[in-house]
Amino acid sequence: MTAACKPPSPIPPPAVGTAGKTSGDVTAVPLPPLPSLPPLSGGRLPRRVPVRQVLCLVPLVLVAVAAVRHRSVLAEGFGQLRAASWPWLLAAAAATCLTWVAAAFTRQGAVVQPLPKGRLLATQFAAGAANHLLPTGLGAGAVNLRFMTVCGVPLARSSAALALYLMAECVGRLGLLAVLLVAFPDALRLGTLLPDGSLLPLLLGVAGLLVAAAAVVLLVRRLRTRLAAFAREALGEARSVHTRPARALALWGGSLAFPALQAAGLAAVGQALRLPVPPAHMALAYLAATVAVAMVPTPGGLGSVEAALIVALVAVGGPAAVATAVVLAYRIITVWVPLVPGALTLGALVRLKVI
User: Fold this and answer.
1) For 335, which DSSP code?
2) Sign of the C-alpha dihedral, residues 44, 48, 49, 53?
3) What is the pTM of this model?
4) Does residue 314 contact residue 289 with C-beta atoms inside 8 Å?
5) So what's the pLDDT on residue 197?
6) Which residues lie across from 299 on neighbouring strands?
7) Which of 50, 76, 82, 104 has its CA nearest to residue 257?
8) Cβ(101)–Cβ(253) below 8 Å
9) Are 327 and 92 in contact, with CB atoms under 8 Å apart?
């Protein structure tokens, strides 16, 4: 049985390729217009705030603020440099430049992954400026942490490398201080370095802080868990570094060379201004002062380092007036002269997305 055929339609089909017309019985519904942003002055659309360009100017602003606050120290320090012996001042400047190389070696030694050498050295120069503009250690730590993460090192390993660097630098500084104290037991007169009766309260205060920190760690479970995970990561990174002799040599060699070069810079300035103290005793005074100042959270130790160095140089037998001149000239060479180029380098690294 076959299906019945339909009769042909009286309306002819449209030709191929022709567009159909809208029926006259259909009413078009208009769509609401899209919202438009209000134009700025001149009819231009708003642009994003150039965050990186603004961040490039922040270090220079901080340098200007620090220079205005310490303008009397700057004026007196530059005045002392005019009467100094220039060959010894050049030696102090060379020692200061080598400290950035030593810091670069130590930073590379604290991480297994190879870092780009040129950018690593430039980052240490910029980190020195950041360290003098922020509380001690925070500026350099933040710059190097950002640099390592940009280079592809995971954040956990970057933090572990930063902790390993700080531990190595602390061990190197304390180790040099201990060696000089053993070699020159009578050089540093602690009676003039510490006021009478201040040693016991100082020790009690340090012990109280350690007990309070331990209590917080034990009582706060989340903090204890995170610290345990970080300690495992740091120990794993330390084991990986020490399985490579080149990394271990860079880590510990740089951590010893860094404070030794700083102390050599102070001794060179002392020779330039004819401070009647043996260079080894000046190095001992520098290490003792910087260890004491490490617990004072001031930007780059500005103010506290000068005071501690003057007291330490007097404690090793230097006249107070000459010791003050030596410290001011030393800080001009190691802090204030590199501060502006260091801030410019920091801004350039931010703009180039190196950090």
Assistant:
1) I
2) negative
3) 0.74
4) no
5) 57
6) 135
7) 104
8) no
9) no
Nearest CA among 275, 270, 341 for reference residue 89: 270
Task: Note the pLDDT tens digit of each residue in 41-97.
Answer: 454 544 565 555 555 566 556 656 666 665 666 666 666 677 778 899 999 999 999
Question: In terms of C-beta density within 10 A (0-12 exposed, 13-18 middle, 19 or more buried), how is residue 7 classed?
Answer: exposed
Residue with tokens 């801004």: 347
pLDDT of residue 45: 45
Q: Are 350 and 55 in contact (CB under 8 A)?
A: yes
- Name beta bridge partners: 135: 299
DSSP one-letter code for 112: S
The amino acid that residue 24 corresponds to is G
Alpha-carbon distance of 181 to 28, in angstroms, equals 95
d(CA 277, CA 271): 9
Residue 134 CB contacts under 8 Å (≥ 6 apart), including other chains: 142, 299, 300
Cα–Cα distance list, 306 to 73, 247, 321, 323 (Å): 10, 34, 13, 10
**Spatial CA neighbour of 134 closest among 65, 72, 50:** 65
350 CB-contact burial (10 Å; exposed 0-12 / middle 13-18 / buried 19+):
buried
